[in-house]
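Before the break, one more example. Copy the sequence into your notebook; we will annotate it together after we see the structure.
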Amino acid sequence: MGRGRVVIWDLVALKDPGLTAEWDNINQIIEIKFEGDTTTRNQNIALDAGMQEKVRIIDEKECGCDDKDDREKVRMRQKVEEFIRKLSESAAKTFGIAPGGGPIPLFL
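Here is what the structure looks like once it is written out:
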């Protein structure tokens, strides 16, 4: 992708969480998209470069969220956000903190 181009996915599931997030240890990359949310330019570049074999993009239609009432949608979104928050905390403990305060991103 070139120098300075970074892709930060929502979730990186490792085969062995005790090892680093290198390509051979990545089981699946999950990107969650809500209404009005699209993949970033760098995410599209990464997908075009061959990452699509491990990337799964989940949207509201796939999860059936459109069938829920508004309170249920809010509850589901909160569960997803809490799950991502816990994963980020776990990643920070494992890999340290990147500049800017988030977990260390996956460089391509």
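Strands lie at 6-7, 11-14, 26-33, 55-59, 106-107. The helical segments are 41-48, 60-63, 70-95. Try to locate both features in your own notes.
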